[in-house]
Protein: GTP cyclohydrolase II
Organism: Mycolicibacterium tokaiense
Amino acid sequence: MSRAEQDMTPLNVFIALSRYLVPIEQVESFLPEHARWVAQRYAEGRILVSGRQIPARGGATILVGPDRQSVETLFSTDPFVHNGIAEYTVIEFVPSDGDRRSMDFTAFLARQ
């Protein structure tokens, strides 16, 4: 897809919840590789916020993308998934407009 086509593609908002499939010690051994992967998604402007769940049984990410399939494909490249450390559930949602969303979130979407 060309950059012009990407600019015309509406972005949808997703919540991706991960669930660890292995003991936390194994999770932590892949954390540096996963952190680099996440940092790249921030650099691309895809992720709004991400972090570990409490208790540490997985993570949560809020991000944008053109459609569910592209987001699921994106997460399949996460080293956690690639190495059998975690799996993701992707939830698409429509953020409320106007007074029912923060100005910071609106600004994030505008940068897309």
User: Anything to note?
Assistant: Residues 1-9 have pLDDT under 50 and may be disordered. The first strand starts at residue 12 and ends at 20. The CA atoms of residues 68 and 97 lie 21 Å apart. The first helix runs from residue 3 to 8.
